[in-house]
Structure formats: structure tokens, C-alpha cells
Amino acid sequence: MFDLINGLPVHPLVVHAVVVLLPLACLGTIALAVRPAWRERYGLLVVACAALSTALIPVATSSGEALETRVGDPGVHAQLGDQLIWFAVPLLVLSAAMVWLDRRASTSPGATGGRSPVGVVRAVSVLALVAALAASVQVYRVGDSGAHAVWGDQVGAGK
């Protein structure tokens, strides 16, 4: 299903969307965690980037498996790529929770009636920050291993 579009492999096309959107979601989550005032204005955009990149990861892994049958085993890249979803889902859930809790806290009437405690919002923000950093590292690892799998022999031979 996720093999070719117009004779070109789907994998590099989808991967580039993930490689752009997931780091943007990570950077946005970090920014929202450190600057709570930005949550109302940019929160939905960050969550949308996280959601879209998370939705595209299974497409990238499936298309990578289809590409593997054509070009061979990419080694550790496939294993790291399969793990990426487990970094993206917590990022999505925690960034969405951070934005939602912040909006709930700012729109609730009264000092305590139905309001999210500040400590809960802070705790979720810290967890979102950690998830963003972890997802950033994993995106780098997947991309680096993929670049080595594709270009390692060709570039290394020119030395």
C-alpha cells in the first residue's frame, strides 16, 4: 500500500514530513513549557504538528518496510524507526494535556472552582519538556542511521 507514488518510493517523501514536523512539535513544546504565555496563542499549532507527525510515523515505517524489499536491509535504522512512535505519542499526549490544562485553568471562573491546580499544569509541562527532549534525540538517531544507511558507502568512498 505504501510502496510507490508516481514510480517514486513513498518512504523518503513521508519521512521528510516527519523529520520537519516532529522536531517543530518538539521545539514548540519546549517553548510552551518555558513560556506559558505562548500556550494560548501557539498551543493548538504545536499540538497539530505533534498529531500530524505522529499520524505519519506508521506511514513512514510501513513505506520503509516496502522500500526494504526493493533495496535491502537498512540495519539499525529500521529498528530505531519502529521505536519513534513510542516517543511521539507521549509528546502528543503531554503537549495536548499541557495546552488543555492551561486553557482550562485560564477560563475557569473563581479562584478554585473547577480550576486545574498550578502544580498539575507545571508537572505536565515538565513531563512535556522531557518528552520533547527525548523525541528530539530519537528523531536525530533515526535520521542519522537512515543517512548512514543511504549515503554511508557513497560518501565514505570519496575520502
TrEMBL record:
- Which Pfam family name is an example for this entry? DUF2231
The record, for InterPro entries, names: DUF2231_TM
What are the transmembrane regions?
Answer: 13-35, 42-64, 84-101, 121-140
Question: What keywords tag this UniProt record?
Answer: Membrane, Transmembrane, Transmembrane helix
The domain of life for this entry's organism is Bacteria
Domain DUF2231 spans what residues? 7-157
Protein's recorded name: DUF2231 domain-containing protein
